[in-house]
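Tokens in:
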């Protein structure tokens, strides 16, 4: 029964201790455990924001003095000379190598990872899906230095015939034009190795979100006469799209910041080498340039130049994740 105000009479009766029972928001906010958990969650979020902010401020504070003395255009110059009293350094080559290799990794890893996740969740029998998922996840536990050595010693000789094929048939295209770099120390090669490195991230997250697709969505599509692939295309993929985007951006962040494998594999260009858009060229990423020259951080000027490069990588990663968040929120708003 309920009173004229719409409140149940049972809700108005006092509890065993003689106090009126708490209802609605007062019941949830009055519990000590809820208050502690809510405060801890807010505190953890605040700590993360504070750490990211402090890292950005530190990089900016350390980079400003070196940037103020830089006599070259930081955004367009290919020079990197920080030893003299008149430093000249720029990031255009580092930016191209980093973005190109990471983009190649994403182009390869995302379709392959999504396909593997769909196979594990939608096609494979249970006796096969669990071992397959565990095997893919094991790739994430392999250290990056092992990937670098494997790429250099084992995968490199296998890759070289493919590179020669590209030079022979697509050498007229600027992205595959012939360069002075021979062997497997090219941007394209490191992109393929990075794709293998980030594949477990894309596969694991995509697999989890595909497995959460409501059964009613899948069965409803099948009941309407959809084939297996049509059910996946109309029910599973739309539901898992935000998760796939998040996985892709997380994988891109890993690829952008990879250091050891890139340092081992990619061929460093000598000073004065002509600029080339070719993916069959060598170069250095932000992370590998910093790692290769860590021993030179013997003065604030030199360290500031490399910290400035690290600041650009920090901003690039932040922008990528911000764009991913915007895309996900728009997809949510569209689906609602």
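Residues out:
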């Amino acid at each position: 029964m309920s009173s004229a105000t719409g409140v149940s009479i049972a809700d108005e009766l006092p509890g065993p201790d003689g106090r009126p029972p708490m209802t609605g928001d007062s019941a949830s906010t009055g519990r000590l455990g809820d208050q502690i958990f809510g405060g801890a969650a807010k505190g953890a979020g605040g700590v993360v924001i504070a750490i990211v902010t402090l890292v950005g401020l530190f990089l900016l504070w350390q980079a400003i003095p070196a940037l103020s003395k830089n006599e070259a255009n930081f955004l367009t110059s290919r020079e990197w000379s920080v030893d003299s009293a008149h430093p000249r350094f720029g990031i255009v080559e580092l930016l191209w190598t980093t973005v190109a290799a990471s983009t190649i990794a994403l182009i390869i890893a995302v379709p392959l990872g999504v396909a593997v996740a769909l196979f594990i969740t939608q096609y494979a029998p249970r006796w096969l899906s669990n071992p397959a998922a565990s095997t893919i996840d094991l790739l994430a536990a392999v250290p990056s230095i092992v990937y670098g050595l494997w790429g250099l010693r084992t995968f490199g000789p296998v890759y070289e015939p493919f590179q020669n094929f590209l030079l022979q048939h697509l050498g007229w295209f600027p992205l595959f034009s012939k360069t002075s770099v021979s062997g497997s120390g090219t941007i394209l090669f490191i992109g393929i190795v990075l794709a293998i490195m980030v594949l477990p991230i894309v596969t694991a997250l995509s697999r989890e979100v595909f497995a959460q697709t409501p059964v009613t969505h899948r069965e409803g599509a099948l009941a309407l006469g959809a084939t297996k692939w049509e059910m996946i295309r109309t029910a599973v993929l739309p539901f898992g799209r935000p998760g796939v985007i998040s996985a892709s951006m997380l994988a891109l962040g890993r690829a952008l910041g990879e250091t050891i494998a890139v340092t081992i594999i990619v061929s460093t260009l000598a000073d004065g080498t002509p600029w080339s858009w070719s993916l069959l060229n060598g170069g250095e990423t932000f992370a590998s340039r910093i790692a290769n020259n860590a021993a030179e951080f013997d003065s604030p000027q030199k360290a500031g130049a490399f910290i400035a490069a690290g600041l650009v990588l920090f901003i690039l990663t932040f922008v990528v994740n911000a764009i991913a968040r915007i895309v996900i929120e728009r997809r949510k708003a569209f689906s609602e």
